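Q&A log
Question type: sequence-to-structure
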Amino acid sequence: MSDLGTLSVIFDLDGTLVDSEPNHYEASRQTLAAHGVPGFTWADHEGYVGISARESVRIWRERYGLRASEPELLAETDRRYLDLARTRTRAYPEMRAFVELLAAGNVPMAVASGSSPEAIEAVLAGTGLAAHLRTTVSADEVPHGKPAPDVFLEAARRLGTPPADCVVLEDAAPGAAAAHAAGMRCIALPYVPAQADAPEFATASLLLRGGQADFRAGRVYDWLRDGAR
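Response status: OK
Response body:
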């Protein structure tokens, strides 16, 4: 048994484990510009944090009246994102330390993300986190993305852990809602601190209102260990 008893930990990827949102923003900006929508800003992008790439392009088509199909837009955005992700993705230092603590304590871990399987693989390989995070689930592999619980439930199934024994780390409101719907505890660290009062975050077992700035690997590990006793 691990240091945390029967607990397993499931990580969201983008904005939680790694600071990949700048890459997502740039890929989105380039794709929209190529389809006649200039001026997509970071503030615009913040509205898509936590939403899968597939759902994002669906919204684009409706919002901007794009003629390209969803598969075309998704493929374009994924290609641009992968080019950036392989070389420009940074793992948050405290998150890397947390993953290493969990690995040393033999705690089962998984990644459950709205990104494509290829993007997840590229980011984990590029940051070196793949050495510890071998179980991954993409929203592309389940019927519904976040805020539906599907991606987290599939991660629990692959880990062989009951949902009630899983703890999710999430930076976005749709992800916190998905964790709650899955019957899992959630450690929430809002990517956009101004969104910390969103009702979805109120369901979290631990809310770090300042996001990554408030996250300390050792402190959160101790919190989990104390709760597992």
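Response note: The longest strand covers residues 109-113.
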